[in-house]
Amino acid sequence: MAPPPELGHLLRDDGSVVIPPAVAAPVLRLLTIGLTARVRADGGEIGPTARRVLHALHEAAERHDRAGFADETPAPATGIVESTVHEVAVRMGCSPQYVRRLCASGVLRARRAGRQWLIQVDDQRGAA
């Protein structure tokens, strides 16, 4: 069975698959979730080849983020002060995970910078 034309450039003649850097992090996340569940279920361990693939995906995702191609929102206008998730969590007296959920849901005005959230200080309800 031939692959769909839009996927042809991702499949190599030897059967390997090219994973574009933009999707390396989500693919790594899904593989990690699946492997963790499998290891918990049967107590097994992943082999050295799978471990190398995971490390390669991690490195590709890191390089992609460092190059500035991650899913980033534009930088705010100059003069706006931003804080990190940890700083806001300390000010609000909550966990960093809760602050990340507030950012993702739009409750806090924030932007993505690689894998980090940067939150506008003037919109930290109860934190300023």
From TrEMBL:
Name the InterPro entries on file. HTH_17, SinI_DNA-bd
Q: Which Pfam families match?
A: HTH_17
Question: Record's superkingdom?
Answer: Bacteria
Q: Which residues form the Helix-turn-helix domain?
A: 84-123
Q: Name one GO molecular function term.
A: DNA binding
Checking NCBIfam families in the record gives:
excise
Q: What is this protein called?
A: Helix-turn-helix domain-containing protein
Question: Which source organism does the UniProt entry give?
Answer: Planomonospora parontospora
